[in-house]
Amino acid sequence: MQNLKGKVALVTGSGRRIGAETVKTLHQAGASVVVHYRNSASDAKKLCAELNKIRGNSCYLQQADLLDVASFPAMIDSILQKAGSLDILVNNASSFYPTKVGEITEQHWDDLMGSNLKAPLFLSQAAANELKKNQGCIVNMVDIYGINPLKEHLVYSSAKAGLIMLTKSLAKELGPEVRVNGVAPGVILWPENEADLADGESSQQALLGKSCLKRQGSPQDIAETILFLVEKAGFITGHVIPVDGGRL
């Protein structure tokens, strides 16, 4: 079934990993998709080519630095010119790395708060009029560590906690026309830099052991939850769904 036929979805940070899986899932459900990337141009172009081969003129590329919030209105205008409308915004792009107390810099703060909290706010604001017109929706990629903090990730956890409140606040501000929800992944993909999670394999097994299901999730688990919120959850807004194998 293609229940999203005629809809246009923008997924930030979607050239790779969970963002790419989300794009594929929404596209399979019938949506046209906008693949946003900052530096992953080759991955984004390859993904878009694959999707356009499946269904012509159904995928568009959008390069942008999400720390440059002043560019967001022009970015939305560019997407509207390419795709014709915007119905779904998935704020997926994120920075993630440890920040130990005593070593935190203002640059750490600006980067982690910028990508995880500031960008979702200002991009949602830039897209709000179009989303209202189309009775659209926003899904924010939160994290279980925005609910229970991850040790040595003070700034990241704080940013994701702020994103939870932003999700609830946007639901109140943009309703009744726009629904706003969030997804909070648990262990889905390991960081590409093992040092971002500390102790390597032993740390991985310890984290998995703290969940009810005792196993790692997949990007598809997240993408299918986003699809549910976009496609099926017409009376759900202002909520964050943990997809964490029972970790919380």
What is the percent of helical residues?
A: 40-55%
Gross CATH architecture = 3-Layer(aba) Sandwich
How many DSSP-defined strands?
7
- Runs in which pLDDT lies below 50 for 5 or more consecutive residues are none
User: Compute the gyration radius: what is it?
Assistant: 17 Å
Individual helix count: 7
Task: Give a short account of the largest sheet.
Answer: 7 strands, parallel
What order do the strands of the largest sheet run in, or round the barrel if closed?
3-2-1-4-5-6-7
H and E order: EHEHEHEHEHEHHE
In one word, what is the shape?
A: globular
> CATH fold name, please?
Rossmann fold
Instruction: Decide which structural class fits the backbone.
Output: alpha/beta
CATH class: Alpha Beta
User: What's the average pLDDT?
Assistant: 93
Q: How many domain modules?
A: 1
How far apart are the first and last residues' alpha carbons, in Å?
33 Å
What share of the residues does DSSP label as strand, in percent? 5-15%
What can you tell me about this protein's structure?
With 248 residues, the chain is α/β, with parallel strands linked by helices. It has a single domain, classed as Rossmann fold. It has 7 helices and 7 strands. Strands 3-2-1-4-5-6-7 form a 7-stranded parallel β-sheet, with helices on both faces. Helix 1 packs across helix 7 (219-231) and helix 4 (106-133) packs parallel to helix 5 (154-174). It is globular. The model has no long low-confidence stretch (mean pLDDT 93).
